[in-house]
Amino acid sequence: MSGFARPEVVSGGIPRAGAVSGTKVAVPGVAITMESTILIVDDERAVLETLRDFFETYGVSVHCAEGFDSAYEKLRGHPFDAVLADIQLSRIGDTQGLDLADYVRERCPTTAFVVLTGYGSHQLEREARRRGASFFLHKPVRLEDLAQIVFGLLKLDPSLLSSPL
Q: Closest by alpha carbon to 108, among 80, 74, 71, 150?
């Protein structure tokens, strides 16, 4: 995404998340790990690119998958701190994102799972939460609101939102 500046100066002597790759920074009351990694799963390339660019602006390592099979392969080969996934990953009416939530809950129990969907219902939300989703969000969602949720799940300092890298 354009419009985000990447300042080189760190405020207060504390590097922002991602400013120093592979290190940990002590901030009073907040544990920041510079290696936070998320997987974004959506069948729309524009959604993947927008979210990837946005989170990378804040130093989060982002992997993208355009469907269930690709997400499954990435989850088998790499640990993720959080997964953000659409429910419908291939055609209208499918719920492969819920199957992905099952996989994450069973095989990656420490990985947070966030549903992003344009086709949600109360029944679908209950089912997603039953399958391990921490949050169920309806598209469109403001990037700043999504970042607050993801930063909370990753235990990153929410003040990072005011100053992208």
A: 80
The overall pTM is greater than 0.70: yes
Please give the mean pLDDT across all residues of the chain.
Answer: 78
Q: Determine contact, residues 88/121, Cβ cutoff 8 Å.
A: no
- If one counts the domains in the chain, the total is 1
What tokens appear for 135 in the block? Answer: 């949050």
Model confidence at 94, pLDDT cuts 50, 70, 90, reads confident
Q: State residue 158's pLDDT score.
A: 59
Determine, yes or no, domain membership for 110. Answer: yes
Does residue 5 form part of some domain?
A: no
Any domain includes 7: no
What is the β-pairing status of strands 135-138 and 112-117? parallel
Instruction: Please tell me which residue, 31 or 136, carries the higher pLDDT value.
Output: 136
Where residue 74 sits, what CATH number does that domain have?
3.40.50.2300
CA 60 to each of CA 32, 70, 114, 130, 144: distance values in angstroms, whole numbers, following the listed order: 11, 20, 16, 28, 14
122 inside domain: yes
